[in-house]
Specification:
- It is built from 8 helices and 7 strands, in the order E-H-E-H-E-H-E-H-H-E-H-E-H-H-E.
- The radius of gyration is 17 Å and the shape is globular.
- It has 256 residues and is α/β, with parallel strands linked by helices.
- The structure holds nicotinamide-adenine-dinucleotide (NAD).
Length: 256
């Protein structure tokens, strides 16, 4: 049966774990050739091994989304392997615990903690957009990009001011890129996951599970594959009239 991404070349950042890995695998299942990028070499090697063992075609590119030379290299290597780039999933990100102590309100957050969060979650997405779009324009236009925002890109979350700021920023970048490149046939959307069970959220979920689940109408955490399916669809030509949108996948959290 034909896949909905047949013939397309894709780049996934943060592809060594969680949502990025599940999406890279789902893209390959739908026929895309996938460049899997992450800081973690071990992570990308494992994702690529899973894809290639299932008969898919993928390559691993280690890189840091906060470094412009690395991001330029991710795009260049994708193009040298697959000839072009049709889809990109800008998903690499960090949560509060990776950049500083948890539980801090805005007056307690330090500038280095906030700067680290901004550099990965916001500058990282900016740099990916910059280099991916330049390549898509060079190819003559066309393409689909999905950025990972969050429910924290739509509502505030106490003690996550820096994370919330970055994810609202990702929504803003998404809308602006969608407008700027609509005439070039490049669609840019974001996915806004709710609470998803991944290595990123494990500690928080272990500590605050009951409190969090009480706010999720379906009364469970999501799994990365449930985000992957939405991203694959947004990257496909089936989503041809969708651009500039925030696609919420959150078990009803933001509706409540
Ligand atoms: P994860 O920790 O499993 O995966 C994130 C990946 O990003 C890791 O493999 C990590 O190595 C990589 N990464 C971190 N910094 C990087 C950098 N500078 N350069 C390149 N790669 C880097 O977490 P996840 O839950 O799969 O998160 C993926 C995305 O989803 C993030 O943007 C996160 O903010 C977002 N998100 C997650 C949830 C959730 O509940 N898990 C909810 C909403 C949004």
């Amino acid at each position: 049966m034909a896949g909905i991404l047949d013939g397309k070349a894709a780049l996934v950042t943060g592809g060594g774990s969680g949502i990025g890995r599940a999406t890279a695998i789902a893209m390959a299942r739908e026929g895309a050739r996938v460049a899997v990028s992450d800081l973690s070499k071990e992570g990308i090697d494992e994702t690529v091994a899973l894809i290639n063992a299932a008969g898919g075609q993928s390559i691993a590119i280690q890189g840091d989304v906060t470094e412009k030379a690395d991001v330029a290299n991710m795009v260049a290597r994708t193009v040298s392997a697959f000839g072009r780039i049709d889809c990109a999933f800008n998903n690499a990100g960090v949560a509060g615990r990776s950049v500083g102590p948890p539980g801090q309100r805005i007056h307690e957050l330090t500038q280095p903690t906030v700067a680290k969060m901004f550099s990965v979650n916001l500058m990282g997405v900016f740099l990916c957009l910059k280099y991916e779009i330049a390549q898509m324009l060079k190819q003559g236009g066309g393409g689909a990009i999905v950025n990972t925002a969050s429910i924290a890109g739509l509502v505030g979350l106490a003690t996550s001011g820096h994370y919330v700021a970055t994810k609202h920023g990702v929504v803003g970048l998404t809308k602006t890129a969608a407008i700027e490149y609509a005439q070039d046939g490049i669609r840019v959307n974001c996915v806004n996951p709710g609470y998803i069970k991944t290595p990123m959220t494990k500690e928080t979920m272990d500590e605050r599970y009951d409190e969090i689940i009480a706010k999720v109408p379906v009364r469970r955490l999501g799994v990365p594959e449930e985000i992957a399916e939405a991203v694959v669809w947004m990257c496909s030509d089936k989503a041809s009239f969708m651009t500039g949108a925030s696609h919420v996948v959150d078990g009803g959290y933001s509706a409540a």
